[in-house]
Design brief:
- By secondary structure, the chain is of the alpha+beta class.
- Among the domains are: 81 residues, Immunoglobulins (Immunoglobulin-like), CATH 2.60.40; 51 residues, no CATH class.
- Helix content is 65%, strand content 8%.
- The strands form three sheets. The protein has a five-stranded mixed sheet, with no helix packed on it. A four-stranded antiparallel sheet has the order 1-3-7-6, with no helix packed on it. Strands 10-11 form a two-stranded antiparallel sheet.
- Strand 8 and strand 9 form a beta hairpin.
- The radius of gyration is 27 Å and the shape is globular.
- The N and C termini lie far apart (97 Å).
């Protein structure tokens, strides 16, 4: 027996020895694309490192020696198929699957077009995920189907931040369920009706609430949508319009706010890019200077206010508002709202008093908990390398380091507890009724949770297929100093639209665009230093603005989905009605923003003309909504 153990141990030690003289590739990608530049790394454990050579499909390739690694930088695959990598002695090193570059954009495009055409977002998203898995797993439809379920949909919500968003959304839905059952939401309607007695005033109130809750886009979306929905229903404002007002004040205001959950992420990207090029400028001060160039968020906020103040709309939004004003149909016939808070399970309990504070106190608890939580968690994580210049920068740095996802969960649960305690304490609901109404509120959000999970899944598909890298590769050859802000805005918009993520788009483009925007104008002697600096600032802003624009337009974006969810709107109806408004703000951002500033026009002049253009457009091209007789 002892002899057998010795032999087993000896074999365990000796068997790996032949492998020690071989090669190994540090392969981090499931597939590779033609036309995209890669940095390939290999490890060879042999002591002899003189002129290491590998054989790619029969062609020897000389590698660079970097420490213990061997590298093939800036390698571009010219043809698709399977690439065999072998050592000079013929020993296999790796098998690489190379796909045509254009394949990477098909899954998100298929999901977007199917959703818009058939108005069935669940089927559209799953089709996009399946198509992506089909490409990734060897053009095998059955394998693609199975892996789409297990590797993408099954793991999409496994990340802690995403799980926090799901739990926060469902829990807040439960809080709204208790508030509705206890009569609190109807009480808010009665209270706000004194100030918002017309459709126009109701829209202005919704816009103001969106601007005031500036510290986080998720909290903004869910609080404003759920709070305002009963009032806008009473005022015969369509769910599509509410979803637009919610969506157009969430990410845009968080994007430009100097104190928000976005600021730390944005500053870290700017700071990291500055480190690449040796720029010593303060990232916060630079961000502050980019705000006047962040045209799309600024124009979107202004356009939302102009739409609310004038009572005018156009295209599909006008038809939705006309429908609601004429017959009180806040949803079109056959619409499928992502969250249905008007179901029988959530109807007001018979005899329940309509007390506004039974809704406002839980909402206030959510807002207060979020603000204090952001500050306390940020303070615990904030370790500045240098002293902040003033209190605004200090506060921004603290909130930028906050654990926003944990804080939102705390806020949602405390809000739910508060709503339940208020209902039980006033004997409006029994404990059992309060819990059942909370569960009913959660159930009303399940469809939205499924769609959110599918949206994350197709985002992971885009990551594995390197959709963003392909778009950048195809567009980088047309960059020029004067057109850099405009092209950056457009490229960021395309990437965010295809992938459904604004933060991911910022992370992809910042290390590429910021060094370009700093070096390219300086290399052109015909560009004055003041204009070069303006191109630099506007290009940074264009990354943030374009990411927000593409995210706004995309039906697979999490914030777009959450806006539909919180407003109780049909998701595709929200996308179709918001798209013309987003495109209008983007068009003004291009014509009156990024194009002229690239040639040296001042930010103040282009901002002013852009605001005027937006107002004139809605005033003369928009139609006033009038109830039909």
């Amino acid at each position: 027996m002892i002899r057998k153990i010795r032999i087993a141990v000896l074999l365990f030690i000796l068997l790996p020895l032949p492998l020690l003289a071989g090669w190994e590739m540090e392969q981090t990608k499931a597939v590779y694309l033609t036309g995209v530049e890669y940095h390939l790394q290999f490890i060879r454990s042999e002591a002899d490192t003189v002129q290491p050579v590998l054989v790619f499909n029969g062609e020897p390739v000389l590698l660079q020696t970097i420490g213990n690694h061997f590298e093939l930088p800036k390698h571009i695959f010219s043809a698709s198929g399977t690439v065999s990598v072998n050592a000079p002695d013929g020993a296999p090193v790796a098998e690489l699957r190379v796909l045509p570059g254009w394949v990477s954009i098909l899954p998100p495009l298929a999901a977007i077009f199917l959703a818009l055409i058939f108005r069935q977002v669940l089927v559209a998203l799953f089709a996009g995920i399946w198509l992506g898995a089909f490409f990734i797993y060897g053009y095998a439809p059955i394998d693609g189907f199975l892996y789409a379920l297990t590797e993408y949909i099954g793991k999409a919500a496994a990340e802690p931040d995403r799980m926090s968003i799901l739990i926060f959304s469902l829990t807040l839905g439960g809080m709204v369920g208790v508030m509705s059952k206890a009569g609190g939401t109807q009480g808010i309607v009665q209270k706000l009706s004194r100030f918002a007695s017309s459709s126009k005033r109701g829209q202005v109130v919704a816009w103001l609430m969106g601007v005031l809750i500036f510290f986080d886009d998720y909290a903004n979306t869910l609080i404003v949508g759920n709070t305002m929905r009963p009032l806008t229903d009473k005022l015969k404002i369509s769910r599509e319009k509410l979803a637009y007002l919610v969506d157009s004040t969430a990410a845009p205001v968080a994007n430009i706010a100097i104190i928000s959950t976005w600021i730390g992420y944005e500053l870290s990207l700017i700071n990291q890019a500055f480190g690449q090029i040796g720029v010593q400028d303060n990232a916060y001060i630079t961000f502050f200077k980019t705000i006047p160039y962040n045209f799309y968020p600024l124009f979107t906020l202004a356009f939302g206010l102009f739409v609310a103040l004038t009572g005018r709309d156009f295209f599909s939004m006008f038809r939705a508002e006309q429908r609601a004003a004429s017959g009180g149909k806040v949803l079109r016939e056959g619409a499928v709202p992502l969250a249905d808070m008007n179901s029988g399970e959530l109807e007001i309990k018979k005899g329940a008093p309509l007390r506004w504070y039974n809704a406002m106190i839980p909402v206030g608890v959510v807002i207060t908990t979020t603000l204090f939580g952001l500050w306390l968690t940020g303070l615990a994580n904030y370790h500045p390398a240098t002293r902040a210049h003033d209190w605004v920068q200090y506060a921004s740095g603290v909130i930028g380091q906050a654990d926003s996802f944990s804080v939102l969960m705390w806020a949602a649960f405390l809000g739910s507890f508060t709503a339940i305690l208020l209902a039980i304490g006033q004997r409006i609901l029994t404990l059992n009724e309060a819990i059942l109404s909370w569960v009913s509120g959660v159930k009303a959000m399940v469809l939205a949770g499924i769609i959110l999970t599918l949206a994350w899944s197709i985002g992971n598909i885009c990551t594995d297929l390197q959709t963003a890298e392909y778009v950048i590769t195809e567009t980088q050859t047309i960059l020029s100093p004067h057109l850099l802000p405009l092209l950056t805005f457009l490229i960021a918009g395309i990437i965010a639209f295809a992938t459904g993520t604004s933060w991911g788009t910022m992370a992809i483009l910042s290390p590429i665009v910021i060094p370009l925007a700093y070096q390219l104008p300086l290399a052109d002697p015909s560009i004055a230093p003041a204009v070069a600096y303006e191109i630099f600032l506007s290009s940074i802003a264009a990354i943030l603005a374009g990411a927000t624009f593409g995210d706004h337009c995309s039906p697979i974006s999490d914030t777009t989905i959450m806006s539909s969810m919180a407003s109780g709107a049909d998701h595709i109806d929200h996308v179709r009605t918001q798209l013309p408004y987003a495109l209008m703000a983007a068009a003004v951002s291009i014509v009156f923003g990024y194009l002229p500033v690239g040639f040296g026009l001042s930010d103040g002049l282009v901002l002013g003309t852009g605001f005027i253009a937006l107002f004139l457009f809605i005033r003369f091209a928009g139609k006033k909504v009038q109830p039909l007789a």
